[in-house]
Amino acid sequence: MKKITILFILVAGSIIAKAQQAYDICIYGGTSGGVIAAYTAKKMGKSVLLIEPGKHLGGLTSGGLGYTDIGNKYAVTGLAIDFYRRLGKYYGHFESWIFEPHVAEDLFMEYIHAAKIEVLYQNRILSAKKENGYIKEIVMESGKTIRAKVFIDCSYEGDLMAKAGVSYMVGREASDVYNESYNGVQVQPSQTPQRGNQVPDGVDPYKVPGHPESGLLWGISNAPLPAIGSGNKHVQAYNFRICLTNDPTNRIPITRPEKYDSSRYELLPRYIAKLTTQNDIREILKFDLMPNHKTDINNGGGFSTDMIGMNWNYPDGSYAVRDSIQKEHELYNKGLLYFIGHDPRIPDSIRLFMLDWGYPKDEYKDNGHWSPQMYVREARRMIGAYVMTQANCERKEVVTDGIGMAAYGMDSHNTQRLVINGMVKNEGDVERGGVGPYPIAYRALTPKAAECKNLLVPVCLSASHIGFGSIRMEPVFMVLGQSAATAAVLAIEKGTTVQEVDVKKLQALLKTDPLVNGRTPEILVDNEDSLHLKIKGNWAFRKGGFYGPTAYLSAVNDQPKSVQFIPEISKGGAYDVYTYVLPRLSNISSVITCSIFNGKEEKEVIIKKSAIDVKGQTSGEWVHLGRHQLPAGKSAYVAITNKGADGVVAADAVLLVPHNF
Q1: pTM given for the model
Q2: Could you tell me the maximum CA-CA distance found in the chain, to the nearest angstrom?
Q3: What are phi and psi of 587, to 5 degrees?
Q4: CA distance 650 to 644
Q5: pLDDT over 60 (residue 27)
Q6: What is the DSSP track for 398-463?
Q7: Do 527 and 653 touch, CB atoms closer than 8 A?
Q8: Measured between alpha carbons, how far is 366 from 660 in angstroms, rounded to an integer?
Q9: How many Å apart are CA 133 and CA 131, to the nearest integer?
Q10: Gyration radius of the chain's alpha carbons
Q11: DSSP conformational letter for 222
């Protein structure tokens, strides 16, 4: 009997051990930020578990958002820029910001396999247990219990954060909460010709035009317009980033989806009829082309793929509610594609163009060739130790504990479709560009210490609605994922809370070991780095639209001018040298003459504008000036000159990438 009891205890202990696993760091959410966080933590020597509620890794980056929202490349650092460089290698470029979904997912899997990261798929969090302000364990729907020293929530929904009892916000604050002009209820004026995401004036909202008694068209609310700037729980619209192809050998026709209801799209013909240009697909779909005859289609205009007002219950909804909302968005988007291609009221030029496109056979093979990742633009947002707001975006308030940067404009999609002055109008859209790179506070990744001491939140971070609208870009989530994982490691090694992490040490680690491999980091010299510049002649200092906040511009004249970028090289060796060129700049010179001095001799390199192909949402490209043997110290330089120029020359930035060391 004693032997049976001992055997029972051993077996029971074994079962409990398997069901209750312990790690240094547990990351919930296999988004782009989640994968990078897991890779970072594992490379830094910690035991790591990455939990993905679904079946795929990479979130939106592998889920269709291949036409990257960059904002400014200056803000993309560390493993995030490594990701886009690896994509570049795949496509034969230095960097690629435009890519196919399956290529991105394969690359994320390379990170996972290289670091031997354990991934738990198809497990959603059920609860979190805290003791004395620390998360001790989380319980999954599958029954698994996970213990960790530090948890990182990298989900788009902030589910771990919410289960841990951390304060958060859903919807939009009133504009006076954080003294913001772009938060809360917003109605943009219509523009002629059509620009932005508003419905043109004069579009009738009723089923029978001119007859309110006939009822409103689908998707239009009869709610009154709240006061401009007032807050509510309404969430900006979701959609899918749609990957299609026009390659006949890889194309599956767009057919009538299940539960198709053409009445959902009755507003579209009326919308098109009011457009200045009625024969361009880009007036109703943001139709961006990708490699290998594919697309990344986003919402474009006042009636498009955004399912406005149909996602308000998603952030705090049960998993069943969310699944239902995602399915409705999928069917709405598929139905819209079918409607555009088959309804006779759609102009022939648009309708026939749409029929050339179909679902790609080589994408999302286990999900009917449709992305499994809905574009959850915004769900919960933590109310943490520091809240990022419009003031940060506009650099009116600059934090000193920055552990990453954002640079995209303040961006919100519409939240509801109303009747205003007898016309259809969208409410909620904000598109405010001109935002230069600005730092994101480490405190915005940490909850208030009184609420949780071992949780970091780099995706649903602490930000106002409009502040989050600038930060919420995939490259930034990768940067913040790396920062969060590095902070988690420091907290474990020093035995501190996440709030007590030495931020200066964190900042130094991110700078000195950006790829978490101990190798010599690349050297960037931006035009704002005055200690590493030598300027000859009269150059104009200009803001906006460059690499980083500014650039020096030279007008056309006969006076010799140059800007020397003088890197401080800690380790001599072979470096690939690049300079940032802006061929889209007005009146830019057709040739740019550069000089590279290696400490002994100078070599001249001429860049031809005609040879530079800028792709995607970016102002320019890095141009390779060759591989050069450069000594340690500050004797080498790269000079941008106006020699032979027939237009404006920009001196913006120089990059040195170590070759194999």
Answers
A1: 0.95
A2: 101
A3: 60, 30
A4: 14
A5: yes
A6: --SSEEEEE-SPEEE---EEEEETTEEEEE--EEE--PPPEEEEGGGGS--TTT-SSEE-SSS-SB
A7: yes
A8: 39
A9: 5
A10: 26
A11: -
